[in-house]
Amino acid sequence: MLTATQAKAEIDRLTDLLSQAASAYYNTGTALLDDDQYDLLAGQLAELEALYPQAARPDSPNRRVGTEPLDLFPKAKHQTPMLSLENISTPEELLAWGERLNKELEGLVPVFCCEAKLDGLSISVVYQKGKLAQAVTRGNGEQGDLVTPNLSTIPELPLALQEPLDLELRGEVLLKKAQFERLNQALEEAGEEPFKNPRNAAAGSLRLKDPQAVAQRKLSILLYDLVTPGFESNHEGNLKKMESWGLPVNPHRLVTGDLAQVLEFCAQMEAKRKDLEFEIDGVVIKIMDLGQRARLGRTAKFPVWARAWKFRPERAKAQLIKVEQSVGRTGVVTPVAVVSPVELAGTTVRRASLHNYKQVCEVLGLHEQDSVYLVKGGDIIPKVLAVEVLDRVPGAVPLEAPVVCPSCATALTRLPKAGSKPKEGQEPELEVDLRCVNPACPAVLDGQVEHFVSKKGMDIKTLGGKMSHLLLEKRLIGGIADLYRLAQKREILEQIEGLGKLSVTKLLEAIEASKTRPLNHLIYGLGIPQVGEKAAKLLAQELPDLQGLLALTEADLVKVANLGEVLRGQLLRWTGEEKNRALVRELLDLGLRPALLERPKNQPFAGKTLCITGTLQEKRSDWKFRLEQLGFTVTSAVSAKTNYLLAGVEAGSKLKKAQELGVPILDEEAMHHLIETGP
Ligand SMILES: [Zn+2]
């Protein structure tokens, strides 16, 4: 059990954390916490608030239905409050709800309507005399943003119905997965931040001020409830009515009186989830009969007659034994939780990711010997999702971020974000990562050498495995450059156990041979953050020689296709650091002459500039890649220097500008023809 002080501290921490996350999400669409983690932490907070009511805060996210929206749009009150649903995710919780229903319905038999839970943005839609009159976001549940003009851009939502009906409807604004991909691609090409998921993209799109811009986002909507009474006596009947009026209704549903079938439907939807056009995150289970619904009513926050079954990755609870720190080749110190062995998704787990120390100290508030919940994400190593505070050992000490490097004891620092350009007089934004910046840090050097000699790098096989560690340990090398000085230490090398004359000869030959390994492998081997195999090749194709790497400017990098902004920032930071510049010069002095890469040949359109606009039959990225292979410079805007505009359907301002400037406009067919016949 917690002391009152501990409970208060934990309630304060969770309240602040969740409020921040909710506000960031509603106002900017940024997800500070995963949904799963948010739900779990909110549940823990609710549990603590119930146990220690005197410590609960009035601004607890559990006391509000939503978060106050920003004043971007006029506000409108909902005719009927928009409640959220109570979440469940286990058969036990479902059965408990079933029992409660049976008790409260006193002999009436409940029938359920199960619907795929659409992962979008809830919306209230009102028709007056058959005309689309009002669309309001959920907001705080009582009132939300009036976004009628934005919602009117959705083609499948009729602006007028055949009959002059007065309707209040509920639905979800969504973005199709395919449309989400296209949108993100366009954003990335324009150098803007892509959206994290279709829901964020839908939310961000609905909040745009200009309905025309909203229209280009191609939002969708599916309705799932008719709130206005007086039509059918049951929910499914109402949905069928809505379909007959030409309204878009969520098609993924099942009516059953059997909770076992409800569970089966949940499992089916989870299995089908990835094949659906839209993202779903669970199943909504509602009482069919509207009379029964009225009888069941609502609690302060949730209707009693519905539950949201949330898809959840399997979880396991384990005890934290200790937190290990590993120092990577970039100097970043990463915490890893060592836990009591536990079964999770078919494997025995002993270690779990903690991401970084912000996660450890702020998000999780991890203490020594805490009980932790683990989940398997997409990664191989599971992650720590949350702490079970109620299991906390009395007197347990909160874990703190290390101050010095576990390998070399140098004070750790947080660097400014790569590529961040703070305004005058402002502090630059810092990275979350804690870093050892000692260039002679053994752990960093070890990681660097290992990366340098790896297959995608210099591919010096004899140095793989333990050999590079051994050489560092015996101080025969102090870093990458020293590999090329090993020839002078032949006699000492031959003394090393397991290394005879012959293997030393082989080792030195392999090192010597690596001096002319193609430039892209050397660039990869240098371990510049973000620069992987592909980026290394793109860079190598641009460079006249190794030294050219140090002369690269932002302007040069922008011209290299497919190098993202973050990568450019990291690369320029790397080449700007004196120790790295010294390393490159040292390698040159030691005789490294990497084989140079030629630009892809056969570029009949080299020097020609082209802009792409509108929706194309083929993927835009495919076109871009093909055109760049042919030598085109593909730009994001039309100017007097543009040689061609490749225009798909629904082309907008770029098409107009090209017409004004007299730039030749080609459709896809004409483009194919141009490629065949040449410039
Ligand atoms: Zn260090």
UniProtKB/TrEMBL annotation:
SUPFAM superfamilies (alphabetical): BRCT domain, DNA ligase/mRNA capping enzyme, catalytic domain, Nucleic acid-binding proteins, RuvA domain 2-like
Active site residues according to the UniProt entry: K117 (n6-amp-lysine intermediate)
GO biological process: DNA repair; DNA replication
Residues given in the record as Zn(2+) binding sites: C405, C408, C436, C441
Binding site for NAD(+): D35, D36, Q37, Y38, D39, S84, L85, E115, R138, E172, K286, K310
PROSITE patterns: BRCT (PS50172), DNA_LIGASE_N1 (PS01055), DNA_LIGASE_N2 (PS01056)
Uppermost EC category: ligase
One GO MF term: DNA ligase (NAD+) activity
A GO cellular component annotation in the UniProt record: cytosol
Reactions the enzyme catalyzes: NAD(+) + (deoxyribonucleotide)n-3'-hydroxyl + 5'-phospho-(deoxyribonucleotide)m = (deoxyribonucleotide)n+m + AMP + beta-nicotinamide D-nucleotide
Pfam families referenced in this protein's UniProt entry, alphabetically: BRCT, DNA_ligase_aden, DNA_ligase_ZBD, HHH_2, OB_DNA_ligase
SMART domains named among the record's database cross-references: BRCT (SM00292), LIGANc (SM00532)
Domain BRCT: 600-679
Keywords: DNA damage, DNA repair, DNA replication, Ligase, Magnesium, Manganese, Metal-binding, NAD, Zinc
Cofactor: Mg(2+); Mn(2+)
EC numbers for this chain: 6.5.1.2
Keyword Lipid biosynthesis: no
Cited HAMAP family: DNA_ligase_A
Family statement: Belongs to the NAD-dependent DNA ligase family. LigA subfamily.
Function, as annotated: DNA ligase that catalyzes the formation of phosphodiester linkages between 5'-phosphoryl and 3'-hydroxyl groups in double-stranded DNA using NAD as a coenzyme and as the energy source for the reaction. It is essential for DNA replication and repair of damaged DNA.
Protein name: DNA ligase
Protein species of origin: Candidatus Lambdaproteobacteria bacterium RIFOXYD2_FULL_56_26
Name of encoding gene: ligA
